[in-house]
Request: fold
Amino acid sequence: MMAAAMYMGTIDPPINPSSNIAFECSRYWLPDLSWGMPADNSSYAEADVGQDNLSTSGPAQSLVAIANSHWKMMAPKKVLENGPGFTPDFDALFTFDALMLKVNSSCSVMDSDIHFTEKYEKHPWAFRASLYPCIKTYGSTITKSMPNEILVSTLPLRRTNASATEVTTTANLTYSLATDSILVDGSWQRCQVSDHFTESAPVPISVNKTLQLYPDEPTTWYPADCVWMLDYVPALALNQFLSWMYDESPLLAITSNTVITSGSIWLKPLYRNGTADIDSVAEYIEGLANAMTAIIRQRGSGRVLGTVQVAQTCIHVKWAWVSLPAGLVGVTILLFACTIQSCRRSSLWDSTRSWRCSSLALLFHGCDDQMR
Reply:
């Protein structure tokens, strides 16, 4: 399910993480384990992936060479020159860098001369994108069976082992976060913590609000409902599948034609025939994150409870199933009235004052010439 969602997230992503969710409540606030993208303004309520004028220093990660016919495709990863850089306020589960040759946005990619560098200048462009697990709280209302959600807050999960580099090099690396309050039946409740182990607060938490790995360090004990975690096994599986999708995965343009490319199908929407920019990349990564988030929300183990604001009973009539018997009843009544009128005008009514009718005769034989 997750693999299929990740494929569709790059090719035909959902409109938002809520588009595939079946709603049954009138109103609720939903905290949920989700996927986020780094934002250019350090606000994670809206998804973005970076800034044009920002660069990072250090070795490239999971390099993706896209539409590059002049540079060696599998060259050793280079260290970027020192720049202003930035430190993201999250612990990424997966990060990849992409390097591509692109044309100016004013160029027409459908021009048959697009492969001529003299006419359409091509220049290198690169970006770095990351996915990280987080807790998202949604406010939702359902009015007349139409759901509407708003994102209330986003809290990135942290590496339990702060010194770990990534999930593939650190055994049993988990992502966790303890929150001071949680939603219970649609209302916020503060978590009752303790400075020692109790049955109601059995989870050890470090000063960084992550799971405590070292018992001799200062520890606070939290209720299990107040601790969020992405375990090592699913984290490793997601990391490795994303690595298979993007790590050293080139999209080739042999003739320098940005339209004619060969490679992974999920890289083509990212490249956009050589017209990719920071906004299109942000939309692409957001679609991937939304697809992963939707699957996690669909496959949850429990329901979200809320408070009913207005109760009303609706009756839906399937007219397609009612129309045939209703039509037969209507035709029978009409035939009944016509039969009475016809019998009253005939001599049969004066002698016997009797009549009979049936819709079956009308259905199989039709009306006689006089009735027509």
